[in-house]
Amino acid sequence: MRKDRLYLLTFLAITVLFILVAGISIRSFIKVGANELLKTQLESSKREAKEIANLISFQLANNIDKDSVIQNIQRSIENTDTETGFICMFDWSGKEICHPDITRVGQQVNPNQSVVTTVDGEMNSEDFYELLTNKKNVGGVRDFTEGNKESEIIYLYPVQNSDWIIAAHANTYKITGQIKSLRTKFYTIFSIMGFSLVLCSVILVRLIGSSYEKKLEVKNQRLEDEVVNLAKLNKDLDSYQQRVIEMEPESTNTVSEKGKKRILTYVRNELRPISTEDIAYIFMESTITYVVCFDGSQSTSNSSLDELFSNLDESHFYRANRQFIVAISAINKIIKYGNNQLKILVDPNSDVDIIISKNRAAEFKQWLNS
Questions:
Q1: What is the pLDDT of residues 39-49, one digit of tens each?
Q2: Element (H, E) at 203
Q3: Which residues pair with 88 in a beta bridge?
Q4: What is the largest CA-CA distance in the chain?
Q5: I need a labelling partner for 304 at 20 to 30 A (CA). Which of 50, 111, 225, 336 fits?
Q6: Taking Cα atoms as reference points, which of 264, 253, 370, 255 lies closest to residue 317?
Q7: How confident is the model over 147-165, as pLDDT tens digits?
């Protein structure tokens, strides 16, 4: 139940994060795409207006009749207002001379239609995008549908040797439709990407989680096995200590053949013999051998650990490592330490850790079971 809830929260978190990122970035992508579209439209309209203006100027310079020029231009641009852009021509008074819609010829240019206030005025793609956005947001003013065609003058270019002006128009309803189509494509792509990303992320999290859970189960099983082994080891320790206690009365009446009953130690300049039954552990530090008794007293010995261990009863004392000899009666608890190593806790407590390496752990267990 917890895992399913975790996966659900992961799915929701990734979904919310993607929606936030996509919501911010998609606006920028749409604006960049729309600006590129409008930039292409502007450049195309400007180039067409200049070419036609230069052509008319050339014809007038060659004394071609103005009426013939007007008729030729009218025939060439007639019914072109269905495209994203078209051109028309009017004079300085604002009277339409040529227009794709023949019914507009002779009428005055709508002053609200022109966005370029002077002949030299120019519009860039960002201005054009702002215009379309503002017109769209003004409710009820303009309807960008094919039944109600709207256009804006985006570029003006004068015809030399005349009072005529070539105006480049942009069909806002057509361009708005293209931008809307572009927006739809972006949203579709982002939706597919988002669904795929979220789904793949959840599957990946689930796979990683399952793999981690399996490793955790294996690790827990190993820990359980180690706990059982340590419990058994401590149980063997208790049994061995109990056997030692039961054997003590018998050993007090006989001299042990396996080791000495006393060793000679020093406390400052004073000689002090210590019974081996009173020794808790012996350790070496900075080339000095220390003998620690069960009452916590500490003395030193001139013998090395090897010499002392050779004279001790191996059934009661164990050489834990190069630094320590431990009496069975002093062992309080055995715990796991590091990589398959064992740590012996003694009473009285030792300031230095008594560690049995993994190579000697089996030998130590066998010693406890002997």
A1: 888 888 889 99
A2: helix 172-253
A3: 167
A4: 148
A5: 336
A6: 370
A7: 446 778 888 899 988 889 9
